[in-house]
Amino acid sequence: MSENALFAPLPEFSRQAHVSSLDAYRALCAKAEQEPEAFWAEQAERELHWFEKWNHVFEWNPPFVKWFVGAKTNAAYNCLDRHLETRADKPAILFEGEPGDRRTLTYRQLHSEVCRFANVLKSRGLKAGDRAIIYMPMIPEAVVAMLSCARLGVTHSVVFGGFSAEALKARIQDLDATLVLTADGGWRRGKEVRLKDAVDEALKDCPGVKNVIVAQRTKGQVNMTAGRDHWWHELEAGVSDDCPAVHLDSEHPLFVLYTSGTTGKPKGILHTTGGYMTFVVSTMKWVFDLKEDDVYWCSADIGWVTGHSYIVYGPLAAGATCVMYEGAPDYPAWDRWWQIIAREKVTILYTSPTAIRALIKQGDSWPNQHDLSSLRLLGSVGEPINPAAWEWYHRVIGKGRCPIVDTWWQTETGGILIAPMPGAIALKPGSGTFPMPGVLADVVDFSGSPVNDGAEGFLIIKRPWPSMIRTIWGDPQRFEQQYFSRIPGIYFTGDAARRDKDGYLWILGRVDDVMNVSGHRLSTMEVESALVRHPAVAEAAVVGKPHEITGQAVCCFVTLKKDVSSNHHDLAQDLRKWVAHEIGAFARPEEIRFTEALPKTRSGKIMRRLLREIVTSHTVTGDVTTLEDLGVVTKLAAQHDED
Ligand code: WT7
Fold it and tell me: What is the pLDDT at residue 637?
């Protein structure tokens, strides 16, 4: 498929769409650009409930922004209470556990669960401004946990269940959390993921945590520390489900989500309430064209930002019916997803290129055994989607009828910034197409000047949008330095991009030392720091290596301490395990290469660029004039041929 392949919206799709023509899209953008205050005020008023209105729509003191200044609202109220008049008996969550258990929660039931659990939190002394860690499997209680916190103004930080005890501990400490919400475990490929054990391990060094509340999922054996640990169902027994939502400031911290930066220390990305909610609910309609009778399924985990914005806050604020699935796509067989889609009559599916590539590999017979005719829209997120994956997704899953929305955004952006509005924009496979209204994206060079169409440059956003990151938790300096210092006052995405002759944006990947493994961000430095904590390792350099399924895979160059004598095969295994233990299973290196030395500049910096070239093209062509020891590179490049 060439870059010029163009898929115009089908007339029957456009006819029913929220935004049904290119002109309509352009009109939204013009209004948002020329009158941002009026535009966003209108969105906020139409899509959300406010206990008190704002004095100003936004205040911009770069790098700090406030939206709906002075207003009072509540995210949980907007996801639940607001629907009780019109959608009380509509399913909010269609849950399916990996073992096959199913549960439907209507908006009324979800509201009642959230109120009851919020009362439990209140009775444990939790209040607005406190912080909670959520470390849970993909079960409805995880959503209840998030919304209960939001109802009271307790700022939550969800830690993906695939993170290790070490990673969990670092997040609890950075956030000074006093509460941990978890479960005994969750199901993944028929095995129990033992979450409570990891919590126990992490809490050895977290004296600030006063309460641990444990949902019962797997019924596995767990240890409960008296006075600190409580069973969710025991605390909840007999508790009232009447719990008014706290009227919170629009800028009240809703959640912190940790993501990898270019250092070993993850960044706590802070999102607040009013602006975030306005933006995520707006994009549900613009990008997913959400309608009252849609059955929407986002296959992400709530531990990532996609789960926050497009499983919980966006869809529920929009009153959607959401499918939630606990487990793996290949359990018990590779048609699990297609079974769910056929049974629940899913109309919108939002997933990642990595998942699509893994599914392609299993052949068309899996999806072809099931009736997928309910689908009307497909989405992709997390990494660029390659033409082959796009074509298969479009043809085999969408039967050529369903537009694919390729959505570009980041943990920091809170919601989708670049994506097609499917009734309005002709698609080009692999391009995120155009920005959302009010999102002024540009492609620039080092000095901040726009580059010509067709040329590569840095992707920047020139004006704050409502769901923009507010700060890095506890580190406003790092916030400014990371995002607003390259070009002062302008948001720097860290991605390279290109705009083609038709104005379409193509995202080319990161320009920093951040890898993207299965659509999950991972810092090279984080893995390096983990490796050098191992007693046998002297030095390590980590780069992302192209991978057929996961996009990139972790490739480590390791030098060993002088006296280490164990055989390389065993040690490589040991180091893989070590990284999984230090960070989480998803960070487990694909490849460990032992080397006598690493290529460095004269000032001692590891030249990751060269290592990247070695794993990508197996040769070195770039500038090596500042290289300390050219012999090292020649050897490393040659090593591949020996393997
Ligand atoms: C990075 C953000 C957004 C939620 C999931 C990842 C890459 C994301 C796309 C896309 C090309 C993409 C970027 C971005 N990325 N979506 N549609 N096309 N690249 O969130 O962990 O914060 O990672 O993922 O490089 O900067 P994240």
Answer: 73
